[in-house]
């Protein structure tokens, strides 16, 4: 059976959107992780501690989100074949 125009278009779309987002967008996700960590540090330094629990939750949430993203990327790279792109 010969390739038709619709078959080629479907193959291009599946190649574009197929695969793991972690593999395709590692630099972007790493940047987002670093920005989250940086935002957590900036909030901890610049915002006064008089805001109480909201201040602590904001700092902890930003730091946790950034660290989780960076650890997930690191584990993906350490996994056998994780750094290779298809």
Structure description:
This protein is mostly helical and 86 residues long. The chain has a domain at 20-78. Helices cover 74% and strands 0% of the residues. It contains four helices and no strands. The two termini are 26 Å apart.
Low-confidence stretches: none
Radius of gyration: 20 Å
Tell me the span between the first and last alpha carbons: 26 Å
Main β-sheet description = none
Share of residues in helices: over 70%
The beta-strand count equals: 0
Number of separate helices: 4
In N-to-C order, the SSE pattern is HHHH
Q: What portion of residues belong to β-strands?
A: under 5%
Query: Per the principal axes of the C-alpha atoms, what is the gross shape?
Result: elongated
Computed structural class: mainly alpha
Q: On the 0-100 scale, what is the average pLDDT? A: 77
Which keywords apply here?
single chain, 86 residues, mainly alpha, 4 helices, 74% helix, transmembrane, transmembrane helix
Quick rundown:
Keywords: Membrane, Transmembrane, Transmembrane helix. The protein is mainly α.
Topology:
Blueprint: H1 5-17, H2 21-24, H3 26-46, H4 53-78
Helix pairs in contact: 3-4
